[in-house]
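Response to reviewer comment R2.3. The reviewers asked that we include at least one raw input/output pair. We reproduce the pair for Oligomycin sensitivity conferral protein here without editing.
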Amino acid sequence: MFGVLVRRLSTSTPVLALIQPPVQVFGLEGRYASALYSAATKQKALDKIEKDIQLIKNTLKKDVKLHEFCLDPSLQRATKINGIGQALDKLKVNEATKNLFVILAENGRLSKINSVIDKFEQIMTAYRGEVNCTVRTAKPLDKTLENELRNALNGFLKPGEKLQLTLEIDPSIIGGMVVSIGDRFVDMSIARKVRSLRGIMEQPI
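Raw output as returned:
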């Protein structure tokens, strides 16, 4: 099935060997995203197809009817195939990009469109050597603290990796910070300490 998917996504002479993505993405959605990455790499069209994916993602956010159409389980497959094909023709995306979502519709899996997009973005993040990091604090950090934080987080990176830092405000953590970087998660919030203390105090003596 996977070999067929790779061939269908290729718009040139089919090459059965799958070009492995720089990071393994799991699940059915991961297989579709990996097949698109392979086809895009063979066509030397990664940049174009990444822009296509971003365009589709933004369109789904703005066009509520199209988004609901993709997720609606009651629609016939033929209706979804024609509908998504026409929508992508209007967006003028690469043929391999269009083929991916048409195949999703043919297989009755167009409802997984958001997850496939997320998996492809995950692959491209790894391709560029980027490491996503999210830091939640109770209130905004000043520039001095932010720079110190960036320097500390860069110490976790391997040579060639680039930090992509997102700062979020979450008053519920009270103080401190919650850090998620790559597959690491560190909760240094006051809220966590309060929960731990409460748990200790509630234990029977």
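Residues 146 and 167 are 9 Å apart (CA to CA). The two ends are 60 Å apart (CA to CA). Further pairs are available on request from the corresponding author.
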